[in-house]
């Protein structure tokens, strides 16, 4: 009898501590501000050692501070960021993410905080686009080329721009092969290795990746064609219907703009420009 009682007691204690643990875990999650990103997109998000740095990452820290929460950054492939937010695994996607109608079907966007565009990266000695100054001229040129492979980062606007996608409003380029990479750095490396001809990616990452790639492989230099191919706006993404968090982030961003913090962060990361 005594043994049974002890056994019952042990089970009861075990169950109680399990419940307490689960409770704690939930509590913990409540105190966290979980950000989904793809830290291969300098100067918006990248890693210095183990540390997440870049414009979005600094803003993430400021927003977490103002919300009184602990910042947790989840680094993943870019095309997983939206899913992570939509499923509730993360609170917000902060990934240099362009607002698009297609994405609006899955997530809600906060107010835009940055204007961006796609740009072309080519080998330094490539003269194909010399003298072209508008998106229309470059697109006409791209349409006239054949046997050309353009690298992009999977799931990005650049990907749909090159491949062509009615949902995204892009015609694509019939004779161009679109090669998808995990990130822009790998795509540019493939230009240097002769595995693809050009890369299409967002302007600021294009400039930063070119700079780094030219240091890493200075015998196969690349350059950016400084003609904006698209007009895009970046915004942070929250789960559909999470108006509370969206409004909180919008008003914190307003504060950060008013008190100069936002500009200071941009200046810090765009100083090389
Ligand atoms: N701005 C692009 C997009 O939203 C690329 C973002 C990224 O690669 N992090 O698709």
TrEMBL record:
<dbReference type="InterPro" id="IPR001638">
    <property type="entry name" value="Solute-binding_3/MltF_N"/>
</dbReference>
<keyword id="KW-0732">Signal</keyword>
<protein>
    <submittedName>
        <fullName>Transporter substrate-binding domain-containing protein</fullName>
    </submittedName>
</protein>
<feature type="domain" description="Solute-binding protein family 3/N-terminal">
    <location>
        <begin position="32"/>
        <end position="273"/>
    </location>
</feature>
<feature type="signal peptide">
    <location>
        <begin position="1"/>
        <end position="22"/>
    </location>
</feature>
<dbReference type="Pfam" id="PF00497">
    <property type="entry name" value="SBP_bac_3"/>
</dbReference>
